[in-house]
Amino acid sequence: MGRHPLSLLIVVLSLMLLPYGYTWKEYRIRRSIDLSAANPLISDTKLPTDLVPSGYSLFLHPLLEKSTFAGHINITMVCAKSTNQITLHAHHDLSVDELDLAVIRMDDDSKIPIRRVDRVPKKPLLVIYFHDVLTVGVSYEVRLKFNGNIWENVEGIFEGRYKQQSNSAGSEATGTESEGVIEAEEHTFVSTYFRPHNARRVFPCFDEPAYKVPFNVSIVRPRTHHILFNTELERTEELSPTDSKHVIDVFKRTPPMSTFTFGFLVSDLQEVPSMSDEKDDERMKPAIRIWARRDFQKNVADVQQRVKLALNKLQEYWGVELPLEKLDVVALPGFSYVKPADNWGLIVFKESELMRGYYNLAQELVYQWLGSWITPHWWSDAHVNKAIAGFLSADTAIKIDGGDEFEGKYPMTILYSIYYEFSKRYPHSRITAMKQETTCSKTELVLRMLNYTLGEETFRRGLQKFIQHREYKTFYGDDVWEALTKQAHLDQRLCESATVNDVVNSWITKDRIPMVKVVRSYENRSATITQRLYLRERPHDVPEQDKMLWWIPIVVVTQDRLNFGNISTVKWMKQVREVKLEELPGPDKFIIVNPEEIGPFPVNYDERNWNLLATFLQKEESRTMIPVYTRAKLLHDAWNLAYAGDLSFGTAFNMTLFMKYERNHLVWNPVFTLIDHIGRHIDMSAVHKKFEMYVRTLLTPLYEELVINQQENEEMWKANLRSLAKNFLCRAGYKPCIEEAQRAFKKWMDSPEPDAGNPVANQYICPVFKWGTREEWEFGLQRVINFPESRVKSERTYLLKTLAGCPSQPFKIDRLLNIMVLEDNGNFTDNDISLIFKMLSGGSSGYSTLFNFLKNNWDSIKLRFKDRESLWDNMINSATGLFTTQEGYDMVSQLYVQHQGEFGTAEHIIEKSLKNIKEETKWSDENLPVIEKWLDSFLASNGVADQKFLG
Question: Which catalytic residues are annotated (predicted)?
Answer without folding.
Answer: 364
